[in-house]
């Protein structure tokens, strides 16, 4: 499952340099150990001093992904103020690009000498929030590939947990690592060791989703977990970039994945849902699938009604509107390519955690459409793929009102750009 990291190309290194993060070979870091010792100790102390009490597991389960160093990182504290979000899934920890079994951010910024991400974490915690850290992702060399066994892989991840005083961690097992059975065994073994050595640590395992729940390699990963006697808080699938179309296809995949969990681990349906998670993609996916606010609401309703353990998405960097809104039919790492207000999708995570986003209208008394300060609700009928519309007809879709310019059928509002049939009339 492509996570839009490749869109940056060489820009990531430039961004890290701009942020003042040193990049050097392992040898260079070794030769400069004495000069770095003071700043390293200071950053460790700062991270420890900023550590907060753990949030409830529901918040870690609701934490959306955020790249703190790439893809035009938004202000985490601004998102907290706007939405009530308390937890963030920071991505991604990889092996060094030059080789070795030590943790880095994105393959280039060593965790051992990091101050930039530590500063972001401190700011989040100062406002009563917390973070989980995600390892792996799409592309790059993973520590499970670079380290010699599960114990050394776990030791590398323990450095991350200790440095940032983590209460939660996510194993994002994707291409090409999850096609490597030895690497997957290292990752699952490391997860089990970390779970044992860090009591109360919230552990999620995220992998590719298909219409059958997950594919051959995903099932191989589940089998590995079973053979090692490892049970995380949840196994999450990513139902996007696999021929999906809207929420119905995603909930169908979640139902199928539930059956795989039952079969693999001998769980009841309810137990399987209690160990199942959803990791979506907001807006336009890498393969051109479209997921709107209404789709997120449908999946959220499914997750909560079935007692699922996790609801997250990729990513907060993308949780803002492009210009133009559809980004001329392209997928971006920094905006969603669908009409939206900033942080629309983050509010679904807040709802999953059990909180009410501050901008949500009250449910009692009902909204007053005559009050210009009242956001109200969509009054037009919901768009239907089977209905025929003519010029002037109005529908609601994705939290916006739309007006047809001419005859149309089965053309989704917001997907056809400047010359599309639907005119965006604004948020409901």
Automatic annotation (TrEMBL):
Alphabetically ordered keywords of this record: Hydrolase, Signal
SUPFAM superfamilies: (Trans)glycosidases, Carbohydrate binding domain
SMART domains: ChtBD3
Segments for region (Disordered): 354-378
One of the record's GO molecular function terms: hydrolase activity, hydrolyzing O-glycosyl compounds
UniProt domain Chitin-binding type-3: residue ranges: 380-425
Signal sequence coordinates: 1-24
One Gene Ontology term, aspect cellular component: extracellular region
Alphabetical list of Gene3D superfamilies matching this protein: Carbohydrate-binding module superfamily 5/12, Glycosidases
Name recorded for this polypeptide: Chitinase
């Amino acid at each position: 499952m492509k996570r839009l990291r490749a869109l940056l190309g060489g820009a990531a290194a430039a961004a890290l340099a701009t942020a003042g993060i040193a990049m050097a070979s392992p040898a260079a870091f070794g030769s400069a150990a004495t000069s770095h010792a003071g700043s390293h100790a200071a950053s460790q102390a700062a991270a420890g001093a900023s550590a907060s009490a753990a949030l409830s597991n529901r918040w870690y389960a609701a934490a959306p992904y955020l790249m703190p160093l790439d893809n035009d990182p938004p202000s985490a504290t601004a998102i907290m103020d706007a939405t009530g979000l308390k937890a963030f899934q920071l991505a991604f920890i990889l092996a060094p690009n030059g080789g070795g079994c030590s943790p880095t951010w994105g393959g280039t910024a060593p965790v051992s000498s990091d101050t930039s991400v530590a500063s972001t974490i401190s700011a989040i915690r100062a406002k009563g929030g917390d973070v989980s850290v995600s390892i792996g992702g799409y592309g790059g060399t993973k520590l499970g590939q670079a380290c010699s066994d599960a114990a050394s892989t776990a030791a590398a991840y323990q450095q991350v947990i200790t440095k940032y005083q983590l209460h939660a961690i996510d194993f994002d097992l994707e291409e090409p690592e999850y096609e490597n059975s030895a690497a997957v065994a290292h990752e699952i073994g490391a997860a089990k060791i970390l779970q044992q050595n860090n009591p109360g640590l919230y552990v999620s395992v995220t992998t590719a989703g298909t219409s059958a729940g997950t594919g051959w390699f995903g099932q191989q990963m589940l089998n590995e977990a079973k053979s090692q006697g490892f049970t995380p808080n949840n196994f999450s699938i990513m139902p996007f970039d696999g021929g999906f179309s809207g929420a119905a296809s995603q909930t169908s995949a979640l139902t199928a994945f539930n059956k795989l969990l039952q079969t693999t681990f001998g769980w009841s349906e309810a137990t399987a849902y209690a160990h199942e998670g959803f990791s979506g993609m907001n807006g336009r996916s890498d393969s051109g699938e479209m997921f709107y606010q209404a789709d997120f609401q449908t999946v959220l309703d499914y997750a909560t009604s079935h007692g699922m353990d996790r609801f997250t998405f990729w990513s907060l960097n993308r949780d803002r509107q492009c210009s133009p809104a559809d980004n001329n039919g392209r997928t971006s790492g920094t905006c969603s390519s669908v009409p939206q207000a900033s942080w629309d999708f983050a509010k679904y995570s807040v709802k999953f955690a059990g909180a009410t986003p501050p901008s949500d209208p009250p449910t009692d008394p009902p909204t007053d459409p005559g009050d210009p300060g009242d956001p109200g609700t969509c009054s037009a009928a919901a768009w239907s793929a089977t209905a025929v519309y003519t010029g002037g007809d109005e529908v609601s879709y994705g939290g916006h009102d739309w007006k047809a310019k001419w005859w149309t059928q089965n053309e989704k509002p917001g997907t056809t750009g400047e010359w599309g049939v639907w005119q965006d009339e604004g948020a409901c």
